[in-house]
Design brief:
Elements lengths: L2 E4 L1 H11 L12 H5 L14 E8 L3 E5 L5 E5 L12 E2 L2 E4 L6 H4 L2 E9 L2 E10 L8 E8 L2 E6 L4 H4 L10 E20 L1 H15 L6 E18 L5 E21 L7 E8 L4 E9 L2
Antiparallel strand pairs: 1-13, 2-5, 2-8, 2-12, 3-4, 6-8, 7-8, 9-10, 9-11, 11-14, 11-15, 12-13
Amino acid sequence: MKNTISTIYGAFVQACQFFKQPFELVPFTTQNEKYGIMPKVAPAATEMPSVQYAAIGNWGHRNLTTAEGRPYTGSNQHLPSDAGLYGQIPWVVRKLDNDLSTNDRKRYRMRKVQSIGGVKYAIYYLRVLDTSLAKPAMTINTKVNGVVSSRPFVPDSSNLSPTPPVLQDGEVLTASGEYLAIKSVVDIIITATEIEDIIEACRILYDNEGLAVISEIALVTGVDRQNSGEGMGNNTIQYTEAIAAQIAAILNTYYSLPAANSQIRETMTLGTSDPMLLNTGLTKQA
């Protein structure tokens, strides 16, 4: 069921970085617009969004039944044009008079104050990621019978001085099952405490902890910015928020949190958006 879809928004950020062009804030692409949080605040010309946050949702799956009546779980696949999750859920929901501490709040972004049943709550939709170990690596991948195996791609002197292939009349180069790719692996660890926070969030928002399911996870790019908002006792607080927050990649997975008894560890891979197929042979044209 697991499948990672890279979005066009992440590819756009990469293209801006590649050519050292200013990032353009395109309408209808950000988490900020979705939740009405600093929706029109764009990064400065010298700032570039990067992968810093994660979002979670509970609608990346669907319940199916075989012809024999056996239930199983399928996936609702995302498209590269998707700028949001199908069923995004928050990481934390707290009564405003029992909000996160200043230190704990540093782990979260996309803070929205909302009244539920006449009580004000602070809701956090993004969590900060540790991307310090997400070092890009060059790989050569081989696909056989639908199964992909990877090994490091190590250039040698022949790559600096390539030799043109010798083609006879009527011959064309053919692609093999091998291709090159850049992979950056990001570990997403959801602790037992965070699992309880998500379950409690679903109890508060939906009155149903059974909806505490993670079946879609998004890597989100953005830029940190200081913001002010409502705190307990009608006070105004200062905190770090995310601007220009766009989904760069989405993973389909499945975890029922009420059944989880320990932390969850998920790995997401961001890589090249274009296939880098290798040629390994010659064939005669028909």
